[in-house]
Amino acid sequence: xxQRIVTGLIGGVAFLLLVYVGKEWYSLxxxxxxxxxxxxxxxxxxxAPFGFAGVLGYLLMVSIMWPDLYFSTWxxxxxxxxxxxxTLLLLMYSVIRKNQFHIEHAALTLIGALYxxxxxxxxxxxxxxxxxxxxxxxxxxxxxxxxDSGAYFVGKAIGKRKLWPAISPNKTVEGSIGGFIIATVIxxxxxxxxxxFPLTKALAIAAVAGAAGQMGDLIxxxxxxxxDVKDSGHIIPGHGGVLDRVDSWILVFPVLHLLGxx
Length: 262
Fold this sequence. Notes:
By secondary structure, this protein is mainly α. The protein has two domains: 1-128, no CATH class; 132-262, no CATH class. The protein contains ten helices and two strands; from the N terminus they run ααααααββαααα. A two-stranded antiparallel sheet has the order 1-2. Helix 2 packs antiparallel against helix 5 (103-127), helix 3 (52-65) runs parallel beside helix 5 and helix 4 runs antiparallel to helix 5 (103-127).
């Protein structure tokens, strides 16, 4: 637990610093995390991360993210829509490799590239919003972290009823509610200090961070249970892999955009 807390604090401060700096530094961070996340996903799925299918997955993911990265303002590059070409190539590859690369592997490659790529793309797009992008990103992240930590500690203290035992046996209803409330308090408090958004918008940000954040965590838990692994990786001491830490982020930021909250 001590290692988890220390690593979390150091990583959180470093991450927020790059969020504050923004521009190419934040885009580089987001792109790096996305590549590491897809690497972990492919490895969990039993797909060679640097094989033919894996490379196609990276290309598709980067093509999705590129327009929202700060680098795209440096290079006027028209990125083609690679979804159809990559899908066709993966299907043909499944035929060529016969029983070594199945149709399920092709589907998982696409899901990983789309899910992770879209999630991080919206993270980059949110930070790039003029005037309010920095504060919106910080509020969303603080809400996610508050919900995650609140759900854990409230669940440990008073949790009795299991939230979704088939997916994540340690999560409780009491912890989920507690995390949602704590996220709301943190987001509203920080927004009151920053004075950026009206109360209704701050409440909407808190609601998405609390609810979609916990759903993102459950989605990652479902992946790990399906692939029969404890953690997505081991790159972060005490926390597991990149996907173990960003599972909420890659759902919250797209939902904020889909609901028109940004």
